[in-house]
């Protein structure tokens, strides 16, 4: 199917000071990008050069509270669509780690890797 949509980039919105982000989500995001065979874009909300792009993708596709939670993870597709995959939790880091583990073990990921993306 030549016109089937395919993943093109994984975007990770984070902050280097956040324990839910670094190293946890940084490592898990890189793993997910490798599994999907896509580049990863890392947008640090504390870097003025990246903050505007981070705010834009969160506002358009994520969980956009004025003081939004991080990390947030997005998968961009060849048809221009964007899927919001994960928002970190304000509770213990272990809760965000479980969310990553669930995503990495999900049927959805298996289907995307097999080309059965919805």
How would you describe this protein?
- By secondary structure, this protein is α+β, with helices and mostly antiparallel strands.
- It has a single domain, classed as Glutaredoxin (3-Layer(aba) Sandwich).
- The protein has helices spanning 20-36, 48-61, 93-104, 107-113, and strands at 7-14, 40-44, 72-77, 82-87.
- Strands 2-1-3-4 form a 4-stranded mixed sheet.
- Helix 1 runs parallel beside helix 3.
- The protein is globular and about 40 Å long.
- The protein starts with 6 loop residues before the first strand and ends in a 5-residue tail after the last helix.
Helix share bin:
40-55%
* Main β sheet profile: 4 strands, mixed
- Kindly report the average pLDDT value: 94
Q: What is the CATH class?
A: Alpha Beta
Chain-wise SSE layout:
Elements: E1 7-14, H1 20-36, E2 40-44, H2 48-61, E3 72-77, E4 82-87, H3 93-104, H4 107-113
Parallel strand pairs: 1-2
Antiparallel strand pairs: 1-3, 3-4
Tell me briefly what this model is.
This protein is of the alpha+beta class and 118 residues long. The chain has helices at residues 20-36, 48-61, 93-104, 107-113; strands at 7-14, 40-44, 72-77, 82-87. The protein has one domain: Glutaredoxin (3-Layer(aba) Sandwich), CATH 3.40.30.
Can you tag this structure with a few keywords?
single chain; globular; 21% strand; alpha+beta; 4 strands; 118 residues; Glutaredoxin; 4-stranded mixed beta sheet
